[in-house]
Amino acid sequence: MDISHRDHLLAAARGALAAATLVACVLAEVAVFALRRGDGAAGMLYYLVPVSAMLLLYRSRRRPRVDDVGLVDFSCLKPPRRLRIPVAGLLEHFKLIGCFDDGSVEFMTKVIEASGMGNETYFPPSLHHIPPAATHAEAIREAHMLFFPALDDLFAKTGVPPSAVGAVVVNCSGFCATPSLSAIIANHYRMPSDVKTCNLSGMGCAAGVIGVDVARNLLRTHDMSYAVVVSAEIVTVGWYSGKDQSKLLLNCYFRTGCSAALITNSGGGGGVKYRLVSLTRTNQTANDRSYRSGYRDEDDDGITGFTLGQGVGRMVSELLRAHLLTLSLSILPWREKLRYVAALLLSTHLRRRRHHHDKLSSNSGAGTIPMPDFRTAADHFCLPSSGRPMIWRLGQGLGLGEREMEAALMTFHRFGNQSAASLWYQLAYMEAKGRVRRGDTVWQLGIGSGLKANSLVWERVADDDHFATERNGRSTLGPWVECIHKYPVTEA
After folding, report:
1. CB 3.0-4.6 Å disulfide test: which of 100, 247, 299, 473 passes with 104?
2. For residues 389 and 319, what is the distance between their CA atoms, to the nearest angstrom?
3. Where is the FAE domain (predicted)?
4. Using CA of residue 173, residue 177, residue 178, residue 180, what is the dihedral sign?
5. Hey, what's the torsion of the CAs at 373, 386, 312, 124, to 10 degrees?
């Protein structure tokens, strides 16, 4: 029997059972009053039976909690080798295009050489042309090239057909098509007429977490078993051909990539690889400085590009402090919470004493503010993939070592910044290395425009399959097949 038909029959059976239980409860109450059997132990029993049945009915119909949501599996696209863009070739490409002056080429060269990017990243076909063909038609072709191979692999690995999917959530920050990107997917796979399609744009690198949150809420409120979350960035329309250096960074960092994740509302059920432990979202959109820290606009020549505002680093630091405070309350073990509170009180006391004894000292009020040890709450970390300097700065601020930052550094080296999809490429890296064991927790942290910081914490519930090279006929190494043995690289 087809999975979608089976799920429909099960849902209908649950509904019929609930209706029958409700009718039986009402008839039992009517019988109690009609027979006036309300005295003594027997009377209490007559009342308790329908009440208990009503409670069981409520429990069976309750909405899933966070920990009822699970990740069946995920897939990450490995683009064809013909789309590879080595660093030397990219720098020559910048010179041959003709739209960049010498200052712009020199600036992008310095950024790329210092970023830790390798020679195996990918550009879409449109950006291999001279000049680049950054058109709407090419952006649609890029979307097809990204979505369908990733989703084909996901459906093949999980054994769940497209007809069983109740919701499709697509996040892509810079490109919003009509019909929507989620409609393109639903049309291609001929999904049922009642499938829920959602399209998210402008959310930045934190959009993947938002997509999972939307899928979770759809699973809660609708009678469905599966939702697909697709994360990608259409690089064709993100290309900037002007001379404003604040807009040239996307040309340096962003590359082609796509991820697809299958979410279900049975977090502890069979066939689930990860259980959702925590989902936390924080934004500072009401703050004008935060709101203007990253935005898309036109330069003086009328060319559209994405601008990173001044002071974005300081605003990200403020955002992370607020986000980590909220997140730590839900994921840190009590022992670490108590240790952190004690360290914070001691640090505050020492700073006050130092300030009291030497008010004229420039360092009197300064001092290292203690941070919780997040390694007690998560075993593996997926960080924003924004280049080696930013990854190191963020990782050290969180108290992480080089091994905890390895997945982010190597993903950027191999694939570049793929926006929200980068977090899934990092998880695929750790799985390909055989590091994620049953019972381990994985923290995915995304930071996007707005500004917003979003986190997912997953717990591995599936059995370890570190030595299995295939599952359902598909490689378990994902996009790292043929290259995982080369990593980590020392020059990244």
Report:
1. 100
2. 19
3. 62-345
4. negative
5. -150
Q: Between 251 and 228, whose confidence is greater?
A: 228
Taking the CA atoms of the chain, what radius of gyration do you get in angstroms?
26
pLDDT tens-digit map of 354-407: 766 665 454 444 456 677 788 888 999 999 988 899 999 999 988 899 999 999
Q: Identify the CA nearest to 410 among candidates 150, 123, 124, 118.
A: 118
H helices, E strands: number in the chain: 15, 13
Q: State the Cα–Cα distance between residues 396 and 380, nearest whole angstrom.
A: 15
**Residue 231 · residue 208 · CB < 8 Å:** yes
How far apart are the C-alpha atoms of 153 and 472, rounded to whole Å?
10
The Cα 206–Cα 213 span in angstroms is 11
Q: Which CATH number fits domain 68-331+372-486: 3.10.180.10, 3.40.190.10, 3.40.47.10, 3.30.420.270?
A: 3.40.47.10
Residues pairing with 229 in the sheet: 169, 261
SS3 454: strand
Structural domain boundaries of the chain? 3-62, 68-331+372-486, 333-368
Residue 122 CA to residue 76 CA, distance in Å, equals: 14
Contact 200, 171 (CB under 8 A): yes
Residue 198 near residue 182 (C-beta atoms within 8 A): yes
Question: Do 487 and 171 meet the contact criterion of CB atoms below 8 Å apart?
Answer: no
Query: Is there a contact between 296 and 174 (Cβ–Cβ < 8 Å)?
Result: yes
Written as six digits, the tokens of 72 are: 């069946």
3-state secondary structure of 360: coil
Please classify residue 447 by burial: count the beta carbons closer than 10 Å to its beta carbon, then call 0-12 exposed, 13-18 middle and 19+ buried.
buried
Collapsed DSSP state (helix, strand, coil) of residue 422: helix
Q: Are 425 and 413 in contact (CB under 8 A)?
A: no
Q: What angle do CA 369, 384, 282 make, to 5 degrees?
A: 65
Q: Report yes or no: 115 and 412 within 8 Å, Cβ to Cβ.
A: yes
Helix (H, G, I), strand (E, B) or coil at 414: helix
User: Three-state DSSP class for 369?
Assistant: coil
For residues 164 and 472, what is the distance between their CA atoms, to the nearest angstrom?
18
How far out from the chain centre does Cα 213 lie? Answer: 9
Q: Please list, in sequence order, all residues whose beta carbon lies within 8 angstroms of the beta carbon of residue 39, skipping any fewer than 6 positions away.
A: none
* AA letter at 292: R
**Residue 221 CB neighbours (<10 A):** 11
Residue 71 main-chain phi, psi, to 5 deg? -105, 115
**How high is the pLDDT of residue 3?**
46
pTM: 0.83
DSSP structure class, residue 141: H
Cα–Cα distances in angstroms (integers) from residue 340 to residues 90, 258, 345, 373, 409, in the given order: 47, 38, 9, 8, 28
